[in-house]
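[Q] Does anyone have a clean structure-token version of this?
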Amino acid sequence: MAQSIVNTAAKKLILVDVSSDTVCPWCFVGKRNLDKAIAASKDQFDVQIKWHPFLLNPSAPREGVNKREYYMQKFGARSEQIVGRMTEVFKGLGLQYNMDGKTGNTLDSHRLIYFAGQQEPGKQHDLVEELFVGYFTQGKYIGDRKFLVESAKKVGIEGAAEYLQDPSNGLTEVNEELGKYSAHITGVPYYVINGKQKLSGGQPPEVFLQAFQLAAN
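[A] Here you go.
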């Protein structure tokens, strides 16, 4: 028992601020790799994660648009190559990249992520996982209120339906976070570790581990 207390006390605190959008595939890849780094260093570090919003397409329609058609419109001839690349990357993580369904406005998902963080930081991280899995592997629409509420329930978040029903809930806070964490960056995912180590993109686990070590010193 004494040994256990010593080990816990010896752990160094690592705070990770993540700027991300819920329709960003590399944000999901980065999250999975970050999780691997956390698992590999659990005896060394106590890692706490806070998710912050980023809007890749602030003017995206709330009703959503066909995901494949949107990719064709945005990337043109490169869309097939991009989807092929993401399919391979996801396969390496044991996931099936799914281009079915719609894409669109992500504001409600960010309001919900903020709400989750107010309840319990760990639930926020779990919710982000549920949203990524649903959108990228199951063809769920990120703007679908039913999908958002079901994802919240899966990770033990109470009151999501009522919270989302009022469009003003969390709006001020999300906009404040956009200004504080996203105004100075041009893409996501973006990570700030202990306020000093900064990483961008879907980095492999070993890069996160190295950043933990540097940030802890």
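[Q] Thanks! Anything notable?
[A] The chain has a mean pLDDT of 95.
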